What we know:
The chain is of the alpha+beta class.
Amino acid sequence: MPIILGDPVTVVTGGGRSLEGILSQRLGDYIASTASGGAGGGTTLTSTALMRQPGAAYAGHYCEITSGTADEDVRLINTATISGGTLTLTPYNAFSAAIANAVTFRIHRFDPAWKYEAINEVLREIKSVIPVEVVE
């Protein structure tokens, strides 16, 4: 989801993801990792990197894909299991594409869209007091 600035509305996408990432880190709601693959049709994501918690701890969290074909997909995790050193996340609704090896993702307790909405609300409130640079 983009961050909105200015009037008329200017959409900032790359910076928006950075702001949301900073907010997530400050809230303790930020786990970033890399996938080792996933099932066809985007029905699962696997990772060998997230072994610090029991797999079930991630159920009910949101998985945000941050690279690859399914970039920007956010799905609520239905089940999360660990077997043979591999974490498997199964969302309620499949990702838009199969998750490939080396695709990056983040896990959130709160839907990232809520954070984008909060950031946009703050920006709308303060836009009248922030100087606007005009570049010609």
